[in-house]
Design goal:
Shape: rod-shaped
Largest sheet: 2 strands, antiparallel
Order of helices and strands: EEHHHHHHHHH
Number of strands: 2
Distance between the termini: 74 Å
Strand content: under 5%
Mean pLDDT: 82
Helix content: 55-70%
Radius of gyration: 36 Å
């Protein structure tokens, strides 16, 4: 079963022996590898092929007179290949599919965020003091409309209208950020 085996009618003797090996021991080998691969048929089929390649590469192991069948040797090689494959997968980080990458949140870098902060601070300075204090309380300090109304001593409706007009003024001053100000 070496690569230089004699050729008979377009196929080598090694190919015939390998095909016979597959027919005789392929199903039990596949069953074992399927269990070791947690039911992953594709991976088990790949390992069966790799096991048969190893058998083709080491014909001396298959022709040894020490045992009646080559099945134990094939099962041992297959089992070791499955263990090696599992260890290799565990050593690598998990692969991420395209769907996960497309839905991943895009984070702006620190420089962009700092520039945006400076732009917003400058824009807030252009607001009237009444609009600015409502905006600071509601949007920057997280106060509710009722809490802002109590703190400023004005009705809740006035807080809402000042916040609306303050955001509208900011949209005009910060046209590139209009989508963020909704």
């Amino acid at each position: 079963m070496t690569a230089g085996t004699t050729i008979t009618h377009g196929t080598t003797t090694a190919e015939h022996e390998l095909a016979a090996l597959q027919r005789e021991h392929g199903r039990p080998l596949f069953a074992l590898l399927l269990r070791l691969c947690d039911g992953d048929r594709q991976r088990a089929e790949d390992l069966v092929q790799e096991t048969l390649v190893r058998a083709w590469q080491h014909p001396e192991a298959l022709r040894a007179d020490d045992f009646e069948s080559v099945r134990p040797w094939l099962l041992t090689v297959g089992r070791r290949l499955a263990i090696d494959a599992r260890r290799a997968r565990q050593a690598r980080p998990a692969e991420v599919g395209d769907a996960i990458l497309e839905s991943a949140r895009v984070c702006a870098d620190h420089a962009e965020r700092s520039a945006a902060t400076l732009d917003v601070r400058e824009a807030v300075k252009t607001l009237t003091p009444e609009h600015r204090e409502v905006l600071v309380l509601v949007y920057f300090q997280g106060a509710s409309v009722a809490e802002a109304a109590t703190a400023l001593g004005i009705p809740p409706g006035t807080v809402k209208s000042r916040a609306y007009y303050a955001l509208r003024a900011l949209r005009r001053v910060l046209p590139g950020y209009a989508a963020d100000l909704r």
